[in-house]
Amino acid sequence: MNTKYIEKDKLLRLELLEEIDHHEVEKIRRKADDEIARFLPRKVIFDFNNVSFMDSAGIGMVLGRYKMINMLGGTLEMENVSTPLRKIFEMSGITKICPIRN
Q1: Comparing C-alpha atoms, which of 79, 83, 100, 94 is closest to residue 14?
Q2: Structure pTM?
Q3: What is the DSSP letter of 95?
Q4: Is 5 helix (H, G, I), strand (E, B) or coil?
Q5: What b-and-e string marks burial along 76-102, b requiring 16 or more CB atoms within 10 Å of the CB?
Q6: Structural domains in the chain?
Q7: How far apart are CA 43 and CA 9, in angstroms?
Q8: pLDDT of 4-50, one tens digit each?
């Protein structure tokens, strides 16, 4: 995962570079949590541009990061979500609390 923090906007971008399954999700979760704790951003954006597969562990990972950033008074958004991933997010209902940006 690549990260970029834009201080003037208090924006943390997390670019996911791997498939998100139960094997990879703990590594992603740990890195995301470390970066959120480090910068305390007002907004977190997960960039799914390079993600071709995600299982239910990915939904749990996103939801957990949403809860964390929400407790800190921030927001979480997703972008560059492929059609198959969008369907997964919509069916899970997560798009009601974590919008997908175009």
Answers
A1: 79
A2: 0.93
A3: G
A4: strand
A5: bebebbeeebeebbeeeebeeebebee
A6: 2-101 (3.30.750.24)
A7: 8
A8: 999 999 999 999 999 999 999 999 999 999 999 999 999 999 999 99
